[in-house]
Amino acid sequence: MYALSQEVLRTDVSGMPLEWIDYRDAVRLHFMGQVAYSFGQTLFRLRGGTNARTGQRTVFEVNAIVATVGHSHNPGHLHHGYVPPLNNETLFRRDGHLCMYCGQKFPSSQLSRDHVTPLSRGGQDVWKNVVTACRRCNNLKAWRTPEQARLQLIAIPFTPSYAEYIYLKGRRVLADQMEYLLAHFPRSSPLHQRLSRVSGLQDLQDRATLETCR
User: Fold this and answer.
1) Taking the CB of residue 153, how many other CB atoms lie within 10 A of it?
2) Among 116, 132, 152, 174, whose CB has the most other CB atoms within 10 angstroms?
3) In this structure, are residues 132 and 162 in contact, taking their beta carbons and an 8 Å threshold?
4) What value does the mean pLDDT take over residues 21-39?
């Protein structure tokens, strides 16, 4: 079993990813009759009260992914051209915590948001014009374009789809949740190649977590 901080992936009844919820929300949705089906590994096995008729204590299992009935609240599904909100946390995860200039990996505290075309030169604060940069490269680039600063981007910035954004918001995405989200990424998504390299490692980490929690 996993720690109660582990998030559950919620989808609509058609399987479109919606959001991350905690175990309390998952249990509430079940008892309100809003869960159409659930699948994936069992995250929690929660014990409830004692059944007055059978005298047995109820046990409730929460799976990694739950599909809910009702109308979809997926903005990416309802609005064509949906653009997820831009913030540093998801930006750094989009770029794998790599500086897009020197290619080195850094903790979030040593990273910053760089505007490829500087704001002072008409650039915008949008996904396709921002990259993750270490403080050294950001200071070196300053108000210039990469070409003027003689720096080269190692990857082209892109706007995440809604499913990609759900992945980027996840605090700890398990292997089966990652596999499910990957199936909803655009085929051209740069995240496919990066995540395929770490999916095997993630599966090993999930197994190690299970062994530790037993």
Assistant:
1) 13
2) 132
3) no
4) 94
pLDDT per residue as tens digits for the range 86-113: 999 999 999 999 999 999 999 999 999 9
Any idea which residue has 């604060």 for tokens? 125
Q: Could you give the domains of the chain?
A: 8-75+172-213 (no CATH), 88-141 (1.10.30.50)
State the alpha helices, DSSP H only, in 142-190.
162-169, 175-182
Nearest to 8 by CA among 76, 72, 62: 62
In 3-state terms, what secondary structure has residue 61?
strand
The structure's pTM equals: 0.82
